[in-house]
Amino acid sequence: MLRSAVVGAHGRGLPVRLLTWGLVLLIATLSSSVGAQAPLPSAFDDLIPDLAARVISALSAGAQASLTVEPGIDGEEAQAIRSRMTMLLAAHGVRITDATAGIAAVAIGCGRNLRERVCVAKIADGRTQIVTVTGRRTSSTTTARTTVPALELRPLLSQQIQILDAAVIGDRLLVLDVAAITLFERKDGEWRIGQSRPLPVSRPWPRDPRGRLRASGNRVDLFLPAMTCTGRLDPLEISCTDGQQPWPIGMDNKGLEPGRNYFKTPEGTVFYNAAPLGAAANDDATGLAAACAPGMYVAAVSPSGRLDSGDLLQLSRVADGRLVQAASPVSLPGVLTALWAQPDQTSAVVVTHDVRAGRYDAFQTTISCSR
Fold it and tell me: How far apart are CA 194 and CA 236, in angstroms?
């Protein structure tokens, strides 16, 4: 089964020959998705993040594990649960692979009675552990299947310096750009600079600069071309070391290739970005999930085809390993330069470049629902 699709870097400087592998994977996905119906969402989606957190705490850092969803729920719910768990575990460095000797085995079962829903994970990793999460069975869990998802864009920040990534931390905004890492504070309804530290970049940026930031508690991690930084928020400090390190993008990699804008897997496969369970032939794609719209979704960007319009952000639903359009596309105010899912996968950072205005805009995108 295809668990992730490699997305090429069309229009971003990669030679055409490097796109071949990703496009071959996508042809079967696109041809089989025509006329497909999206599966019914899972009624257990609100329980899965808590279950994933308990599984992660039971496994060692960087572990590999097999993942199965036990019989007892319908096939579409089982697929939705497996997809969501795979994405959440990968976001915390747990790689899901085929069952082999010497790796952890995670088996999940979910069910419901008249009063509550329950999901149980059995973790066999030298010793056996059982973790359980429960939730009330309410009318919302039975009517969730009628929700209509849509993508929403929330403006975060605009500036002339290229933005690489951003993270909303309570009433603060952490922004990574090609010059500095900056912590903004909200005052009078606007983001204002609180603290800023320059990046100790000693070599030219690639033509297509890329960078990621991760903030957890008071810790900050930055992933840059041929350099990794760690530090803290209060006060804002970073320390950087040269060297190519893996990036937290939900797929095994060796970090950005020196002087390039793409990654390589340990086996040498070239890719630009990755999203769970396949994606159309877009420049960028990332997995998203939302409590109001159970199931696994992929947000992907493609050119609008119009000279007077920016790129399009499209939302698709994963249906048996295929992608089915789930909502009308959202027009972006420029050309996409970055699309990064946040660690909990319920939101993503979108960065666009308005060439005419000479401005970079950062947004937070989430899935909203109507009935």
Answer: 9
Please report the pLDDT score of residue 296 as a whole number: 78
Instruction: Give residue 238's identity as a one-letter amino acid code.
Output: I
Range of the domain at 78: 48-144
Residue 16 shares a structural domain with residue 53: no
Alpha-carbon span 277 to 323, nearest angstrom: 8
Q: For 358, left (φ over 0), alpha (ψ -120 to 50), or beta?
A: left
Q: Domain boundary residue among 123, 144, 165?
A: 144
Contacts of 321 (CB under 8 A, 6+ apart): 1, 2, 29, 277, 278
Sign, CA dihedral 215-255-276-65, equals negative
For tokens 């359009």, what's the residue? 325
Q: Could you say which residues of the chain have pLDDT below 50?
A: 1-40, 140-145, 276-283
User: pLDDT by residue (tens digit) across 306-359?
Assistant: 666 789 999 988 776 677 888 888 999 999 999 998 887 889 999 999 999 999
N residues, the chain: 371
pTM above 0.85, yes or no: no
Token duo for residue 127: 């010793």
